[in-house]
Protein backbone atom coordinates (compact mmCIF):
# COMPACT_ATOMS: atom_id res chain seq x y z
CA UNK A 1 0.00 0.00 0.00
CA UNK A 2 1.18 3.47 -0.73
CA UNK A 3 1.31 6.08 1.96
CA UNK A 4 -1.22 8.88 1.85
CA UNK A 5 0.73 11.89 0.64
CA UNK A 6 -0.25 15.52 0.86
CA UNK A 7 -0.66 15.62 -2.90
CA UNK A 8 -3.05 12.65 -2.90
CA UNK A 9 -4.96 14.15 0.01
CA UNK A 10 -5.26 17.51 -1.77
CA UNK A 11 -6.35 15.86 -5.04
CA UNK A 12 -8.93 13.79 -3.22
CA UNK A 13 -10.29 16.88 -1.47
CA UNK A 14 -10.51 18.79 -4.76
CA UNK A 15 -12.28 15.87 -6.45
CA UNK A 16 -14.78 15.68 -3.61
CA UNK A 17 -15.47 19.42 -3.81
CA UNK A 18 -15.89 19.15 -7.58
CA UNK A 19 -18.33 16.24 -7.26
CA UNK A 20 -20.33 18.07 -4.60
CA UNK A 21 -20.52 21.27 -6.63
CA UNK A 22 -21.39 19.38 -9.81
CA UNK A 23 -24.54 17.94 -8.24
CA UNK A 24 -26.23 21.35 -8.18
CA UNK A 25 -27.74 21.53 -4.69
CA UNK A 26 -27.82 25.31 -4.54
CA UNK A 27 -24.32 25.83 -3.17
CA UNK A 28 -23.64 29.53 -3.62
CA UNK A 29 -27.33 30.27 -4.08
CA UNK A 30 -28.24 33.08 -1.73
CA UNK A 31 -31.88 33.32 -2.73
CA UNK A 32 -34.28 32.76 0.17
CA UNK A 33 -37.24 32.44 -2.22
CA UNK A 34 -35.61 29.49 -3.97
CA UNK A 35 -34.92 27.78 -0.65
CA UNK A 36 -38.54 28.35 0.44
CA UNK A 37 -39.82 27.01 -2.89
CA UNK A 38 -37.70 23.87 -2.51
CA UNK A 39 -38.91 23.46 1.08
CA UNK A 40 -42.55 23.67 -0.07
CA UNK A 41 -41.92 21.09 -2.81
CA UNK A 42 -40.10 18.76 -0.41
CA UNK A 43 -42.89 18.87 2.17
CA UNK A 44 -45.46 18.28 -0.57
CA UNK A 45 -43.53 15.22 -1.77
CA UNK A 46 -43.10 13.90 1.78
CA UNK A 47 -46.79 14.26 2.63
CA UNK A 48 -47.88 12.72 -0.68
CA UNK A 49 -45.50 9.75 -0.64
CA UNK A 50 -45.63 9.09 3.11
CA UNK A 51 -49.09 10.17 4.35
CA UNK A 52 -48.37 9.12 7.95
CA UNK A 53 -45.80 11.94 8.08
CA UNK A 54 -48.74 14.37 8.32
CA UNK A 55 -49.56 12.93 11.75
CA UNK A 56 -45.98 13.47 12.91
CA UNK A 57 -46.01 17.00 11.46
CA UNK A 58 -49.26 17.83 13.27
CA UNK A 59 -47.73 16.77 16.61
CA UNK A 60 -44.45 18.65 16.05
CA UNK A 61 -43.61 22.14 17.32
CA UNK A 62 -41.27 22.93 14.40
CA UNK A 63 -39.88 21.43 11.20
CA UNK A 64 -36.40 21.70 9.68
CA UNK A 65 -36.54 20.87 5.98
CA UNK A 66 -33.38 20.20 3.98
CA UNK A 67 -34.63 19.77 0.38
CA UNK A 68 -31.37 18.66 -1.23
CA UNK A 69 -28.29 17.32 0.53
CA UNK A 70 -25.47 16.43 -1.84
CA UNK A 71 -23.02 13.87 -0.52
CA UNK A 72 -19.86 12.86 -2.37
CA UNK A 73 -16.74 10.94 -1.51
CA UNK A 74 -13.47 9.86 -3.02
CA UNK A 75 -11.32 8.90 -0.04
CA UNK A 76 -12.44 12.10 1.65
CA UNK A 77 -16.15 12.69 1.73
CA UNK A 78 -18.55 15.41 2.56
CA UNK A 79 -22.08 16.66 2.25
CA UNK A 80 -23.78 20.01 2.03
CA UNK A 81 -27.25 21.48 1.63
CA UNK A 82 -29.46 24.36 2.66
CA UNK A 83 -32.94 24.49 4.10
CA UNK A 84 -35.36 26.27 6.37
CA UNK A 85 -36.73 25.99 9.89
CA UNK A 86 -40.48 26.47 10.03
CA UNK A 87 -42.68 27.06 13.04
CA UNK A 88 -46.44 26.93 12.43
CA UNK A 89 -45.73 26.71 8.69
CA UNK A 90 -43.74 29.97 8.61
CA UNK A 91 -40.01 30.14 7.84
CA UNK A 92 -38.19 31.61 10.85
CA UNK A 93 -34.55 30.80 10.00
CA UNK A 94 -32.38 29.31 7.28
CA UNK A 95 -29.76 26.63 7.93
CA UNK A 96 -26.97 24.83 6.16
CA UNK A 97 -26.19 21.18 6.83
CA UNK A 98 -22.63 19.96 6.33
CA UNK A 99 -20.52 16.94 7.18
CA UNK A 100 -17.07 15.59 6.40
CA UNK A 101 -15.56 12.14 6.70
CA UNK A 102 -12.53 10.09 5.74
CA UNK A 103 -12.53 6.45 4.72
CA UNK A 104 -12.88 3.96 1.93
CA UNK A 105 -15.58 5.54 -0.22
CA UNK A 106 -16.37 6.58 -3.74
CA UNK A 107 -19.53 7.97 -5.26
CA UNK A 108 -22.15 10.64 -4.87
CA UNK A 109 -25.80 10.88 -3.94
CA UNK A 110 -28.49 13.39 -3.17
CA UNK A 111 -31.31 13.06 -0.69
CA UNK A 112 -33.75 15.14 1.31
CA UNK A 113 -34.41 15.06 5.01
CA UNK A 114 -36.90 16.60 7.37
CA UNK A 115 -36.46 16.90 11.13
CA UNK A 116 -39.65 17.19 13.16
CA UNK A 117 -39.01 18.74 16.58
CA UNK A 118 -41.52 17.07 18.88
CA UNK A 119 -40.77 19.09 22.03
CA UNK A 120 -40.12 22.75 22.79
CA UNK A 121 -36.98 21.71 24.67
CA UNK A 122 -35.49 19.98 21.61
CA UNK A 123 -36.29 23.01 19.45
CA UNK A 124 -34.77 25.45 21.94
CA UNK A 125 -31.61 23.33 22.26
CA UNK A 126 -31.29 23.30 18.47
CA UNK A 127 -31.82 27.05 18.07
CA UNK A 128 -29.60 28.01 21.02
CA UNK A 129 -26.50 26.15 19.85
CA UNK A 130 -24.39 27.55 17.04
CA UNK A 131 -23.42 24.56 14.97
CA UNK A 132 -25.81 21.90 16.35
CA UNK A 133 -24.75 18.39 15.34
CA UNK A 134 -27.20 15.56 14.75
CA UNK A 135 -26.63 12.55 16.96
CA UNK A 136 -28.46 10.67 19.68
CA UNK A 137 -32.06 11.47 20.44
CA UNK A 138 -33.24 11.29 16.83
CA UNK A 139 -35.79 8.67 15.85
CA UNK A 140 -35.55 7.75 12.15
CA UNK A 141 -38.44 6.92 9.87
CA UNK A 142 -37.17 4.26 7.47
CA UNK A 143 -38.65 3.05 4.20
CA UNK A 144 -39.65 -0.62 4.25
CA UNK A 145 -40.89 -2.64 1.32
CA UNK A 146 -40.91 0.11 -1.25
CA UNK A 147 -42.95 3.16 -0.41
CA UNK A 148 -44.01 2.39 3.17
CA UNK A 149 -42.35 4.42 5.89
CA UNK A 150 -42.80 3.18 9.42
CA UNK A 151 -42.65 5.45 12.44
CA UNK A 152 -43.07 4.19 15.97
CA UNK A 153 -46.49 5.11 17.31
CA UNK A 154 -44.67 6.71 20.25
CA UNK A 155 -43.05 9.27 17.93
CA UNK A 156 -44.40 12.00 20.16
CA UNK A 157 -42.10 10.72 22.92
CA UNK A 158 -38.93 11.17 20.84
CA UNK A 159 -37.54 14.70 20.91
CA UNK A 160 -36.79 14.65 17.14
CA UNK A 161 -38.16 12.49 14.34
CA UNK A 162 -36.18 12.41 11.07
CA UNK A 163 -37.38 11.40 7.62
CA UNK A 164 -34.59 10.70 5.11
CA UNK A 165 -35.99 10.11 1.62
CA UNK A 166 -35.74 10.71 -2.15
CA UNK A 167 -32.28 9.19 -2.38
CA UNK A 168 -30.66 9.22 -5.80
CA UNK A 169 -27.10 8.49 -6.78
CA UNK A 170 -24.33 5.95 -6.67
CA UNK A 171 -23.80 5.72 -2.90
CA UNK A 172 -25.71 3.45 -0.59
CA UNK A 173 -27.40 4.75 2.54
CA UNK A 174 -27.73 8.15 4.14
CA UNK A 175 -27.41 9.04 7.77
CA UNK A 176 -27.61 12.26 9.73
CA UNK A 177 -24.93 11.21 12.22
CA UNK A 178 -22.35 13.97 12.42
CA UNK A 179 -24.27 16.42 10.22
CA UNK A 180 -23.68 19.93 11.53
CA UNK A 181 -26.46 22.49 11.18
CA UNK A 182 -25.54 26.17 11.13
CA UNK A 183 -27.84 29.17 10.89
CA UNK A 184 -27.23 31.14 7.68
CA UNK A 185 -28.42 34.36 6.11
CA UNK A 186 -29.48 33.60 2.53
Can you give a write-up of this model?
The protein has one domain (6-184). Helices cover 27% and strands 44% of the residues. It has four helices and seven strands; from the N terminus they run H-H-H-E-E-H-E-E-E-E-E. Strands 1, 2, 3, 4, 5, 6 and 7 form a seven-stranded mixed sheet that branches. The protein is globular and about 40 Å long.
In short:
It comes from Primorskyibacter flagellatus. The chain is of the alpha+beta class and 186 residues long.
Assembly state of the chains shown: single chain
Distance N to C terminus: 45 Å
What does the overall shape look like? globular
Query: Which range does the strand content fall in?
Result: 35-45%
What Rg is obtained from the alpha carbons, in whole angstroms?
A: 17 Å
Signal peptide: 1-21
Pfam family, one: Ysc84
Domain Ysc84 actin-binding: 99-181
InterPro entries: Ysc84_actin-binding (IPR007461)
